[in-house]
Amino acid sequence: MDSNRFPEGFLWGGATSACQIEGGYNLGGRGLSTADMVKFVPKEQRKGDRPPSVTRKEIQQMLKDENDYYFPKRHGIDFYHRYKEDIKLLAEMGFNVFRLSISWSRIFPNGDDEQPNEEGLKFYDNVFDECKKYDIKPLVTLSHYDTPLNLALKYNGWSNRKLIDFFAKYVRTVFERYKDKVDLWLTFNEVNVMSKNPYTGGGVFLEDSDNPLQLSYQAAHHQFVASALATKIAHEINPNNKVGCMLARAVTYPETNNPLDIIKAQKANQINLFFTDVHARGEYPGYILRYFRENNISIQKEVGDDEILKLHPVDFISISYYKSVTESSNSDAERLPDSLFTGVKNPYLETTDWGWQIDPIGLRWALNDLYDRYQIPIFIVENGLGAYDKLEEDNRIHDEYRIDYLKKHIIQMREAIKDGVDLMGYTTWGPIDLVSDSTSEMSKRYGFIYVDMDDYGKGSLKRLKKDSFFWYKKVIESNGKNLD
């Protein structure tokens, strides 16, 4: 075997989410989602790079005065109307997999509706048919940061156990509908974000509780049960279905060899991996039980919860990986700008325009660590560089910095495979410029394809190929061998 090529059948592509690309928020019978209520805040008015925690009161006010705000995720990049053009461009790069999500509120506009919305179901029929036309396998996320808004306002999102049944109804509907078109599924995007930002992760308002951690982890438990039920239903409907969980992998290093730093980093890694421990092993590990005791957290379970978790683990683990994090017991250590996963500055790493430290070798470490722990296939479903791109007068975009970033990470993926890791595939985030989740910006660009739109939704929406478009095409054609 050529050691510089990836395994035969390796899946190469890119990843998106409905709430960041689709638009058409009020078309085709779709209902509002939690993502539709995230207003744009200019960079100079934000603190760091953390997604906002929207309150119930703020939503009520915004619904009352909608014309006073701009909500970028309502409009995305108009994939709703341009999906044929966009999928054709992905096919031109040679994609054999495309990660996208279904908007739950496009199928069940309120989340608790009796009947699904046929117009929404038909939209995804058309999208999946377009993928099939080019032999692109859809990798579909069932819930990607866009809980139906009604479920947030009426039930306080995933803090309410009723959402398990609503979700089960939704997933059974789409599994039945698309059983001949999709066989790769993810349940909840970056499921561990529930503990960091419950509004983003599951439509949960923290002001409804005097113990936010209790509320967050109770909501996470409901998602665990729902995910296991989804896996069960998927296997019943189509035995060929493969269902994975999805973790925002935040590899944490100790700042020094001080044992206090090492323990602090270990605890951070455990809290991160708790979510895959439950999905892959089907039970709550001992370290989290201690964490619950020390933080006054008591998970309310019903009879059968532990059994469903144990009987229906995921088939594979998927991760996003953008950076590593460094922790220190020194309270005076220099810390990086606030984000979902932040820490002290690592002097050995470069930093992006948004304060994320670039660590390709950390990806190899993460892959080995995950495979050693679980011994099931791993799929990298997000990895990319958010950067300012300059559109030249000749409509060219020279993004050599993005090529450099991706090249270094692919090299480390190759090394991890040589180490023995069973790596299924790689979908970069996002192959076409889209609205940033954390900041709702368009200027934080990730794509191989440039979209002519600014942070305020102005522009022609014209699609233009960046230099990285042609580079990634060569990477795919050579199955990872040609990275120059």
UniProtKB/TrEMBL annotation:
KW Acetylation (keyword) present: no
Gene3D superfamilies, A to Z: Glycosidases (3.20.20.80)
One GO-annotated biological process of the protein: carbohydrate catabolic process
Active site, UniProt feature: E382 (nucleophile)
PROSITE patterns tied to this protein: GLYCOSYL_HYDROL_F1_1, PROKAR_LIPOPROTEIN
Superkingdom of this protein's organism: Bacteria
Protein keywords: Glycosidase, Hydrolase
Entry's Gene Ontology cellular component terms: cytosol
Sample GO molecular function, one term: beta-glucosidase activity
Signal peptide: none
Record-linked Pfam families: Glyco_hydro_1 (PF00232)
Family statement drawn from the similarity comment of this UniProt entry: Belongs to the glycosyl hydrolase 1 family.
Identification of the protein by name: 6-phospho-beta-glucosidase
Organism: Anaerosalibacter massiliensis
